[in-house]
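Supplementary Methods, section 5.1.

A reviewer requested that the exact input to the structure prediction be made available. We therefore reproduce it here, unchanged from the version used in the analyses.
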Amino acid sequence: MTQTRTIDSSVNLSNCDREPIHQLGQVQSHGVLMVLDESAQTVLHVSNNAKAILGVDADSLIGRPLGEILPGAPDIKARLDKGLSDATSSYAGTVRVAEHGAPLHAIIHRYKGRLFLELEPSSASDDVTFHLLYGLVRTATGRLKGAQTVADLCRITAEKVRRITGFDRVMIYRFDPDWNGIVVAEDKVPDWHSYMDLRFPASDIPRQARELYLLNRLRLIADVHSTPASLIPRLDPVTSEPVDMSYAALRSVSPIHIEYLRNMGVGASMSISIVKDDRLWGLIACHHRTAKYLPYEVRAACEHLGEIVALQLSAREYAEGADYRIKLKAIQGKLLAHMASYENFVDGLTRHPDDLLALAGASGCAIDMDGVLHLVGETPNQAQVIKLIDWLALNHPADGIYQTNELATEYPGGRELTEQASGVLAISVPRFRRSYFVWFRPEIIRTVSWAGDPNKPVEAERDTGRIHPRKSFETWKETVRQRSAPWQSAEIDAAADLRNSIVGTVLRKAEEMAELSGELERSNKELEAFSYSVSHDLRAPFRHIFGFSDLLQKRAAATLDDTSRRYIHTIMESARYAGTLVDSLLAFSQMGRTALKRRDLDMSALVREVLDDLVPDVQGRNIEWDVQPLPTVNGDVMMLKLAVQNLLANAVKYTRQRDVARIQVACRDGDGEHVFWVRDNGVGFDMRFKDKLFGVFQRLHRVEDFEGTGIGLANVRRTMERHGGRVWAEGEPGVGATFYFALPKVPKEQA
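The structure derived from this sequence is encoded token-by-token as follows.
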């Protein structure tokens, strides 16, 4: 006769996930549980079905010593005398309460200062069962070791567990990162509904149930329609708390789960935990249409098989991932070679896009390096990528790795990027400026099949609030959007390894640059010292050449013919030019050696002084001066005056051929700097040669057309560099030229 199970009406929507399923105070009806005081070994609790199974009234057992209740159980006493590990069940042999009573398996464990003795029916012939189980388990173990893939391993496991247990259906149920379950393998009787490839929502196995699956790795529910037996008394006499039966095999089950199984058409079930790396990987879930009891030895064999499966899973998953990791390592090696073969390592990456994308299995990549953005493959547009990187820099650690395959759920602008960037893998590279590598994956629209509507895992009664598990397990299809393929751990590790390689490359380049900079600085100082010494020592000889040539010309004027006079004139002019060149070179070398004497300087007043000095050079010229208001700067007066003098003198010189020369001096505010310019409408220059303008002795025009030494603009550049500024120029032949110099608003020493 089928008995009806009593449902606890106190379980409702508000406490379902917190239901204390390890303290229900009930056991399954096919066995008897005794809870004993560990020191005295006297009975503190016993299940109230003791009369039906042991033939002894439950109340009469409370307080009695175990040896008095089971006098013919020396194995139990021996097991206790040897000591038990906490929370570890131990088989203590077969016992009989009465001389002619049925044999019972005794299973014992200790937990929280209490001994738990569970008595269950024994199989008819232990010897036959052992030999049969040993053969089945040995065969199953051999097949599992030969599995080549995780899928094969799961399929073989389902087949072998069903063969050993005789259940109507055995499923391998794997958890995803959100604790939803998916059936990845199944073996069943032909006429029962299949759940293969279907998903079950995380709410089907709540958090506290998953925690118990980790603690107690095999759970048998022999009859979902039976009435559980209650512990008497219900509360511990010392703690006044319900008994914690986390490790008890006979522990009863949540009434919600019982109703859930009934709704599936299941009469008995068993679950074997698959624990990989101390985490619940999945379950071996067994279902039977009718009640089904499995003796202890069969359950022990299944639990052992579950441990073997977990070990084989680790090996197979590692093997499957190892090939991919080796492939990614080879790609990483190629990228390192590309990086080493280019002056700028980023060029080595962007010019080999296939390898850069294959490293992370991506369809697009963005590299934001020192403010320069490079886009490779299929990516969002430049503005969208910059906005995303801004968000990453603000919300995620600068030295971390960010990855998601659901960007739309995390990033406010993610919905706009789903076509190219539903998935994102980002790494930051520690540098002086913000630097990011971001790989993208597109949206994959797919249909997911659920065993029932995942949005309605439970139903609640309107009046009482008591919940019922869902009644329908018919296939329910859901279209999943705005998600990409998930990033594998091998791909995340490969991206992290690339970051480490880039950091190493950057540091190596920095060391090389520092070494070269030091050598260059030493060379420059030696060159400056040499040029100063040479130019200083040459001044007197050139003056002597010019002076004695002048004396010779005057003294022998009456006796020299025209040719001799021309020779002496040529010597004098060459000596004069050489002397001017030496003076300019000496001034240039002194500019690099002289300490700056800074003070606040009105640039408008300085320009007026320079214009006054140029008055003799502009006599008879038609020049329209446009000198706009200029700011006050901080700098060396003599150096800045010389720089402005060189620029204005050049403007006057190179507009000589214009009927009306127009020269403008002006300034604008820049980003932390004042930007000055001198613009003229003179002969101009070809922009192809703009990099030669500020070099020593570099000229773009013939000396016959425009006099000069070719050092003036080099002096301008040297002056600005000493002040922490910069120079550049723009020009067009026949139209004119503009020479810019920028001075920082805050002196570089203070900055």
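Residues 1-16 have pLDDT under 50 and may be disordered. These observations are discussed further in the main text.
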